[in-house]
Amino acid sequence: MKRFPLSTSLVSAAVLILSWIGAAQATVTTTGDVEPGEAGTQPDPWVVESSLYVGRSNLGTLNVEGGGVVSNSTGHVGFYSGSTGTATVTGEDSRWNNSGTLHVGREGDGIMTVEAGGVVADENGHIGRENGSTGTVTITGQDSRWENSGALWVSAIGDGTLNVVAGGVVTNTEGTIGVFSDSLGVVTVTGSDSKWNNSSQLIIANTNLSNGTLNVAEGGMVSNTTGSIGNNSGSTGVATVTGPVSHWNNSGELSVGRGGTGTLNIQAGGLVSDSTGNLGSYSGSTGTATVTDAGSRWNTSGTLHVGNRGGGTLKIEAGGVVADENGHIGRENGSTGTAMIAGEGSRWENSAALWVGAVGHGTMNVAAGGVVTNTEGTIGVFAGSTGIVTVTGSSSKWNNSAQLIIANSNLSNGTLNIENGGLVTVDGTTLIGTTGAVNLNGGRFEFGQTSFGEFDRINATSGALEGRVNVSGTNDNAAFAALQNPAVNLSEVAVVLDANSTVLLDLAGTSQYDQLVIPGHLNVGGQLTIELTGEFEPDAGNVFDILDFGTLSGSFAAVNLPVLDGGLAWDTSQLLLDGSLCAGSCVVQTSGDYNGDDVVDAADYTIWQDNLGGDSSVLGGNGSGAPTVVQADYELWKQNFGNSSTGIGAAIPEPSAAVLALAGLVGLVVRRRSW
Questions:
Q1: Are 198 and 168 in contact (CB under 8 A)?
Q2: 3-class DSSP state for residue 621?
Q3: Longest dimension (CA), the chain
Q4: What is the pLDDT of residue 626?
Q5: Are 239 and 229 in contact, with CB atoms under 8 Å apart?
Q6: Half-sphere exposure of residue 138, counting CA atoms within 13 Å on the CB side?
Q7: Can you tell me whether residue 267 is helix, strand or coil?
Q8: Distance CA 146, CA 397 (A)
Q9: Cα(210)–Cα(245) distance, rounded to whole angstroms?
Q10: Is 231 left (phi over 0), alpha (psi -120 to 50) or beta?
């Protein structure tokens, strides 16, 4: 009797083991309208020699689990209109093999779920094949796969939805979301290790009236060769890549609005990469890309066209970054391109050239701390083009590491606006064509170097300029008006008069003469020619301050001066020191300098004091002219205290209080003696 409990325990254990084995056993089950096989448990493996219909006319289901295998030629889930088919492939080693095409929602409604390591394989996959059909496919979990050896259509004509989540993987050659007119396809790839691998091209909205949407999120990955959003006229496609590590990788060209309307959104740290980027590829197309949020990037290894032949708009906002080799805005005839870079951390990085208005119309706006970088920049490249660039707001920058060309062709138009604290820098040369203009209004333009004539095309109302202006040819004082703009900070502008330059200045009177004013640095060279106008004839001692500069270097090869009357000679000794030209000697005697040391100071007062009433010859000819030293010589000394014979035009400081007090006391004594 004591053995019975043991026997009962063994039987119970055996039942449990058999139950566990039965539960773990591979099974293929069908319910409802399934052809062939109908409802029931099917053989494992279940080999169907022809097509398999899950929901041919009514409701049917297929479940493959626990390592079960189903094989057939063509598979249909939801075959006829009004039917509903549901297929589930779940568990490691569970497979559904279709040697032909698998339709999920052929004319009816189809649902397929591949999970927990299950695999579905076919030649071509169609989700939402015919008009009125609805197909939904979900591939979820690590090692869950849908393997298409050929193409995958998500919404051929009906409505199609593909969800790749939680590490699921879908593979095919060419992928299309929204194939024919009236199609509506949506693909979402989300979660770490979730992948959709297209070994060929990926098209989002293929034909007229087709609609396609691609969502890549939370670390999902989509790959293909070329990519197209809004492939042909009348199509509408949208792709959104969002979240860190989320990536859409195009090994070839990506066209946003190839022939139709395309929209690309990169946000919250998403990444899109390609070899060539197009926004608005062909005439009549419209492409818009928005890259927003810190960490979001669009990387193009080649050229990015914003408006290639159609209309293109690029928005870089809130810390987003776009990087490419060359950037073209308004590339071909009839195209329109607009690029907007706004917000701190927002950047458009061109490792080579940037063209704004190549043949078409191009506009670039840099605002609110946005930054654009490139080597050579050109606004208005070829004949017929129009380019406009506006850089506005504090910390907004356009940095050109090589030259900047504004209006490259005589038939092109280029305009650069720098406003409200915006900054444009050029490390090389700035070239401004006859149909080009720079408008500076409260910004800063560091133009590198430019010619005198091109500098004159900078219309500055306020702000600051920095760079080198090369002056050649013959120019009168009026030609330098742009360099004498009091509304603009020109202190960092260096003016270089080259060896072939001639500066013409007129003298019409002692207070009416040309003055070349250079607030920054003046590097002189070439020739300076002075001409007398009207009936003016300088007298001895006339001084003309003809050059006014911050700093000066160089020398004139020749100074051409008019002949003076009476054998009077010009003195140019001070010309490169303080800009003065003198008729006669520039070194003039200074009244009050009684010891001849060229400075009127306290030592001269001592000479006056010690010789008061004596012979005036001790004053060296710098006194009042009286035969003896008198009170008037003191007044002359006081008026000129601090003056110097070499400091023409220098301000005369007042004598110190102590000196004046002493002088007053001595004067009082003198007056008392004269009584």
A1: no
A2: coil
A3: 161
A4: 80
A5: yes
A6: 12
A7: strand
A8: 48
A9: 30
A10: alpha
pTM listed for this prediction: 0.83
Pair of tokens at residue 406: 């504004």
42 touches 29 (CB < 8 A): yes
Backbone Cα Rg of the chain: 44
Q: Where are the domains of the chain?
A: 27-225, 492-583, 602-674
Helices (H) and strands (E) in the chain, counts: 6, 60
Per-residue pLDDT band for 9 (boundaries 50, 70, 90) equals very low
26 contacts 65 by C-beta, under 8 angstroms? yes
How far apart CA 638 and CA 398 sit, in angstroms, is: 58
b/e per residue 44-79 (b: at least 16 CB within 10 A):
bebebeebbbbbbeebbbbbbbbbbbbbbbbbbbbb
Residue 332 CA from chain centroid, whole number: 21
- Return the bridge partners of 164, or none: 139, 189
What the block records as the tokens of 642 is 């601090």
What is the tens place of the pLDDT at every residue in 612-624? 999 888 887 778 7
What pLDDT is attached to residue 593?
83
Cβ neighbours of residue 453 closer than 8 Å, sequence gap 6 or more: none
* Count of positions (residues) in the chain: 675
Distance CA 231, CA 240 (A): 16
- Rounded to an integer, what distance in angstroms lies between the CA atom of residue 543 and that of residue 33? 113
> Distance between CA atoms of 274 and 204, rounded to whole angstroms?
16
Burial code (b: 16+ CB inside 10 Å, e: under 16) for 120-155 equals: bbbbbbbbbbbeebbbbbbbbbeebbbbbeebbbbb
User: pLDDT tens digit string along 345-396?
Assistant: 999 999 999 999 999 999 999 999 999 999 999 999 999 999 999 999 999 9
Percent of the chain topping pLDDT 90: 81
Among residues 131, 135, 92, 98, which one has the least CA distance to residue 115? 92
Distance of CA 498 to the CA centre of its chain: 35
